[in-house]
């Protein structure tokens, strides 16, 4: 027994012949289906690539790493609340208390940010300038988080930190901007009018977001404090002992609540973030984006479906006499319905295939423009594109097919 009935095969042949005879009309008819399906495939591939890239980025912070700031670090919805704006910064004393009193914590590295006062920071070496610097002051323990793998030279030591040594380690893009090639170790650069000796250049961190430049300038903590006496904002990079992340988080929360004098009936006045929590926040954003994608695609598919219904109604009118002849020689109502539904499905199915090719093109173009964004067409997007395009043909072809099937054969044969 054949998989496809002769009636359906005949209907498909008629549909393809009709499309061949009216190529321009057919393409314009399914343009909405092409755009809608292409949007599903293209945006789905970008979201899948972005999800993979960002998930990899966040997981590269380490399964045993906690980030502590005065509010939750990660993807945020809307502005900060008034309570978050008024919170006092995390302090160096908080870091020292955690290191001393949390047995599940392996290391604590304070990270001091420069004060935000609208000043554009600049680094210079022999006439080469670079701006938009990501400056910070930290300690030797910062390397425990795996964020300071060196291309050249070394990281600074605790001795250099204690002595406020005028030294700095630079990120990969700062190195390329100032030195282009060669070992920068031992050379002196100008940062906002201060001279610093370069101890080494770091590789771009594994947790860099796709397309983000590595413009890090890391100073010893006390050197940074000397350079910016008014700096107060800290982030703590805490590495828990293997397998003790949850215990370490509880200990850190307890110590910080005590240190910051948070009443027992009040919420935390700080945020503790893990890679899994930041991934969850990110996926809330991508879920909203996917919802917008579905809505926008639905508009294109609705327009395409109305176009298909319109052209099928025209086709019924044009082929009224043909329908009358078929009914006169014994065609049933079901045969007529199947014929016109098949034509609508073939029309939208071809539109879906063209839209799928368009979506794959968008994915390939995105991958070429943003090499760090590993776009890939997910199976769900390809399957949804095919199913939706066929569904549009079935839904919007039903009324014209019924109209054709209800034609009286005698009146149809008289139609001119």
Look at the helices and sheets and give the structural class.
Answer: alpha+beta
Largest sheet: 8 strands, mixed
Q: Gyration radius, to the nearest Å? A: 32 Å
The average pLDDT is 81
Order of SSEs, N→C? HHHEHHEEEEEHEHEEEHEHEHHHHH
- Beta-strand portion reads 5-15%
Number of strands: 12
Quote the distance from N terminus to C terminus: 40 Å
Question: What would the principal axes of the Cα set say about the shape?
Answer: elongated
Work out the helicity level.
Answer: 40-55%
> How many helices in DSSP terms?
14
Q: Can you tell me the number of structural domains?
A: 2
Unreliable residue runs: none
Describe the structure.
With about 425 residues, this protein is α+β, with helices and mostly antiparallel strands. The chain folds into 2 domains: about 5-55 and about 280-415, no CATH class; about 65-275, no CATH class. The chain has 14 helices and 12 strands. The chain has helices at about 5-20, 25-30, 30-60, 80-85, 90-100, 160, 170-180, 220-225, 245-260, 275-320, 320-330, 335-370, 380-405, 410-415, and strands spanning about 65-70, 105-110, 125, 130, 135-140, 150-155, 165-170, 190, 195-200, 215-220, 235-240, 270-275. Strands 3, 4, 5, 6, 7, 8, 9 and 10 form an 8-stranded mixed β-sheet that branches. The protein has a 4-stranded antiparallel β-sheet with strand order 2-11-1-12. Strand 8 and strand 9 (about 195-200) form a beta hairpin. Helix 3 crosses helix 12, helix 5 packs across helix 9 and helix 10 (about 275-320) crosses helix 12 (about 335-370). The protein is elongated and about 105 Å long. The protein starts with 5 loop residues before the first helix and ends with a helix. The model has no long low-confidence stretch (mean pLDDT about 80).
């Amino acid at each position: 027994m054949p998989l496809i009935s002769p009636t359906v095969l005949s209907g498909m042949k008629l549909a393809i012949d009709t499309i061949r005879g009216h190529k321009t009309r057919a393409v314009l008819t399914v343009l909405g289906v092409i755009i809608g399906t292409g949007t599903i495939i293209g945006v789905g591939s970008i979201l899948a690539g972005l999800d993979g890239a960002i998930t990899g980025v966040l997981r590269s912070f380490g399964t045993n790493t906690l980030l502590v700031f005065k509010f939750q670090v990660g993807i945020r919805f809307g502005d900060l609340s008034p309570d978050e704006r008024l919170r006092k910064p995390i302090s160096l004393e908080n870091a020292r208390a955690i290191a001393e009193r949390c047995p599940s914590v392996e290391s604590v590295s304070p990270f001091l940010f420069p004060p935000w006062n609208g000043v554009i920071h600049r680094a210079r070496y022999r006439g080469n300038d670079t701006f938009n610097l990501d400056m910070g002051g930290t300690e030797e323990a910062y390397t425990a988080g795996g964020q300071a793998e060196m291309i050249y030279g070394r990281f600074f030591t605790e001795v250099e930190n204690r002595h406020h040594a005028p030294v700095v380690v630079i990120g990969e893009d700062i190195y390329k901007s100032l030195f282009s090639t060669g070992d920068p170790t031992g050379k002196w650069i100008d940062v906002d009018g201060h001279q610093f000796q370069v101890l080494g250049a770091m590789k771009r961190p594994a947790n860099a977001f796709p397309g983000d430049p590595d413009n890090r300038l890391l100073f010893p903590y006390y050197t940074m404090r000397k350079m910016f006496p008014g700096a107060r904002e800290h982030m703590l990079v805490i590495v828990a002992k293997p397998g003790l992340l949850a215990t370490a988080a509880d200990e850190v929360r307890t110590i910080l609540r005590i240190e910051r004098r948070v009443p027992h009936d009040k919420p935390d006045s700080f945020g503790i973030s893990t890679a899994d929590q930041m991934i969850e926040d990110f996926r809330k954003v991508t879920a909203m984006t996917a919802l917008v994608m579905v809505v926008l695609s639905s508009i294109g598919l609705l327009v395409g479906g109305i176009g298909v219904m319109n052209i099928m109604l025209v086709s019924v009118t044009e082929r009224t006499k043909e329908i009358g002849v078929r009914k006169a020689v014994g065609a049933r109502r079901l045969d007529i319905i199947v014929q016109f539904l098949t034509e609508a499905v073939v029309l939208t199915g071809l539109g879906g295939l063209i839209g799928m090719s368009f979506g794959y093109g968008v994915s390939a173009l995105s991958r070429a423009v943003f090499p760090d964004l590993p776009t890939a067409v997910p199976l769900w997007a390809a399957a949804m594109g095919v199913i939706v395009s066929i569904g549009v043909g079935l839904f919007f072809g039903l009324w014209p097919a019924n109209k054709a099937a209800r034609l009286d054969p005698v009146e149809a044969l008289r139609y001119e």
